[in-house]
Specification:
3-stranded antiparallel beta sheet, mainly alpha, 8 helices
Length: 190
């Protein structure tokens, strides 16, 4: 807020924010090459102003952030090259926690979203048919993933040693691994 929104909007009351003010914020960020930040700021403002409308803080009945064109974002694609794979596996072998190693490999071998992999439940896995039935995805639709040989090997080993209803158990309130940020940072530092 302080860095990106306050210079343009910080002096305005919520009810005084106009469409042009939001466009100015986006243009200033875009001119600095921060197009992704401009889109995030726009989304934040749009959500904030929608909530203000719902709570009757804006009496205009319109959200000034609606229908403002966003910057086009390019999708980043990064694939490990055949030359990088041995180095990746060597670095991953240095990770002390097998649950982190297996989680990273399952992400690689399934291509599934990290939230789904981390919350993977044994009741969703059919090793005999080599399928993973994901009941709840980001779009709310169930999804089925055909498991690779590598994924099946990891899952079979984990199942033989299982101690939880989760494939990747954790110590938190959810009972499963929550994130791989620190493990990923260690991997990238190798």
């Amino acid at each position: 807020y302080e860095r990106y929104l306050a210079p343009t909007l910080g002096h305005l009351q919520l009810s005084r924010i106009q469409r042009d003010d939001i466009k100015t914020v986006m243009q200033r960020l875009g001119d600095r090459g921060l197009t992704r930040t401009a889109n995030v700021a726009h989304g934040l403002l749009r959500a904030l102003l929608n909530k203000a409308l719902a709570w009757d803080y804006l009496l205009t009945g319109k959200n000034p952030a609606q229908h403002i064109a966003r910057y086009r974002e390019s999708i980043r694609t990064r694939v490990l090259t055949p030359e990088e794979l041995p180095r990746f596996h060597d670095a991953l072998a240095l990770e002390a926690a097998d649950v982190n190693r297996d989680a990273i490999l399952l992400l690689l071998y399934t291509g599934a979203r990290s939230a789904n992999v981390l919350a993977m439940h044994w009741s969703e896995i059919d090793l005999e048919r080599r399928l993973w039935f994901i009941p709840d995805t980001k779009n709310g639709e169930p999804h089925v993933i055909a498991l690779t040989d590598e994924a099946v090997t990891i899952l079979a080993r984990r199942k033989a040693q299982r101690t939880s209803v989760f494939v990747l158990p954790g110590h938190g309130a959810t009972g499963h691994l929550q994130n791989l940020k620190k493990a990923w940072e260690r991997l990238c530092d190798q």
